[in-house]
Amino acid sequence: MSEMQVAVLGLGITGLSCVNFLRQEGYQVSVFDTRETPPGEDKLSADVKLIKGPLNGLLLANFPLIIASPGIALATPALQFASRTGCEVIGDIELFARKLKTAPYRHAKLVTITGSNGKSTVTSLLGEMALEADVNVAVGGNIGVPALDLLSPDVDLYILELSSFQLETTRSLDADIATILNVSEDHLDRYDSYQHYVQAKQLIYKQCKKALFNRDDLLTYPTTEDLPSISFGFDSHLYGLINDSDQHVFLALNGKPLLAVSALKLSGKHNWMNALAAFALGEAVSLDKDAMLRILQQYRGLTHRCEFVAEINGVRWINDSKATNIGATQAALSGLSDTIQGNIHVILGGEGKGANFSELTAVLQEIKGEIVCFGKDAQQIALCNQRAKRVQNLDAAVELIANSSQTGDLVILTPACASLDMYSNFMARGEHFKTLVRALTTDIT
Asked: If both were cysteines, with which of 22, 174, 318, 325 could 27 make a disulfide (CB 3.0 to 4.6 Å apart)?
């Protein structure tokens, strides 16, 4: 086959992005997908060959360049066979990185962000900061728009969220600054070990001019020698936290206050770290400080992820409907009581998918306000705390808490469950919650 022949493994949004880019670059493209009806099949041009069914190593070995979807493990036997025969296996992010080094794109700055938790929040928050600073910015990667679709001569700053899967097939990013926000056990069905997963995350530091790491998480420290670095954390060094004489907490730089955490609409200590990380990344690419501070006070969070909905009669309402498992709810609630003056009220419930809800017992002990459960597994969740109350539905939960909460309190929907017992998806559940909360402005005086 001609060296202009390229195989794209996996269709969908990212696969289509790769196909369109490669065709514009003059390559002849063949697409491989194991599914009988892959999404996006109807959008393929007639000159793109689509091969369905199990991947065949002998067939793939005919393609000098293979673009693998992040969802396809490099350990897949057919890919391993093709690699051993000399085929180059990369992903869409590597294609993006190589193109970014050419005219008319190479003037742009690049920020790359990974981590087990919070990377979407930091990526989108930094994007909002850049917009406020009047910078021509493009945000995407593992969040929103595929990287290749972002390429434009008009863009001055690219901000990419990257998963460990994407990093495995990328080596040429050369980002102006890169960060690993945190590392916790994840995707162990894909990796041989936790160490293997950590090593995949660390690949981001091998492709940057400067690193930002989390002082409170040793696994985020760069292992790349002589790499310039900065850090953020809960102490007062560099990008950190300080208290004033009245014990008010501030985001700070080198011990000097930047912004009181009470001014953030983002809730929770984990989001204090997200705010610090975004600010540090922004300074590294010379975003205007005042613009960044304005956005920190306005940013409501990603939809359905600890999203600020409203403050009504001094009570803050937070939508965390995307917390569809116990770990996500634990992260949202851990230490939350320490961040506000009043009480935390929590709404949980839905379809637990066989989860062991006893793991919530410790974090629910921190909750001094109402603990309200609804949905299919409400009874099991309620066993985790003797103060928990069961109600029929989300409407009843919101009404109960609205009548008992007081100024200074915070209410969070963080279900620890899937939504399919009562809703089409977690988005529908979150939108219903937001509608109920906003109705309180007219129902409660």
From this structure: 22
Q: Tokens 């850090």 appear where? A: 231
* Boundary (domain end) residue, out of 298, 332, 355: 298
Q: What does the pLDDT average to over 276-302?
A: 97
Both structure tokens of 218: 């040793």
How many domains, the chain? 3
Residues 123 and 16 occupy one common structural domain: no
d(CA 422, CA 397): 14
Tokens representing 199?
A: 């090593």
Identify whether residues 212 and 351 lie together within a single domain. no
- Same domain as 118, residue 245: yes
Residue 166 burial by Cβ neighbours in a 10 Å radius (0-12, 13-18, 19+): buried
Q: Is 119 a catalytic residue?
A: yes
- Confidence category of residue 185, pLDDT binned at 50, 70, 90: low
142 included as an active-site residue:
yes
Residues 142 and 220 reside in one and the same domain = yes
pLDDT per position as a tens digit, 44-98: 999 999 999 999 999 999 999 999 999 899 999 999 999 999 999 999 999 999 9
147 shares its domain with 126: yes
Rounded CA-CA distance 181/162 in Å is 12
Q: For residue 276, what are its two tokens?
A: 């610090």
Question: Looking at 298, 318, 346, which one is the last position of a domain?
Answer: 298
User: From the candidates 119, 265, 270, 434, which is the catalytic residue?
Assistant: 119
Amino acid at 253: L
Phi, psi of 100 (to 5 degrees): -65, -20
> Can you give the residue range of the structural domain that contains 110?
96-298
* Active-site residue (options: 52, 56, 117, 187): 187
| Number of C-beta neighbours around residue 386 at 10 A | 7
Name the catalytic one among 142, 271, 274, 385.
142
Burial class for 129, CB neighbours closer than 10 Å (0-12, 13-18, 19+): buried
Query: Annotated catalytic, 345?
Result: no
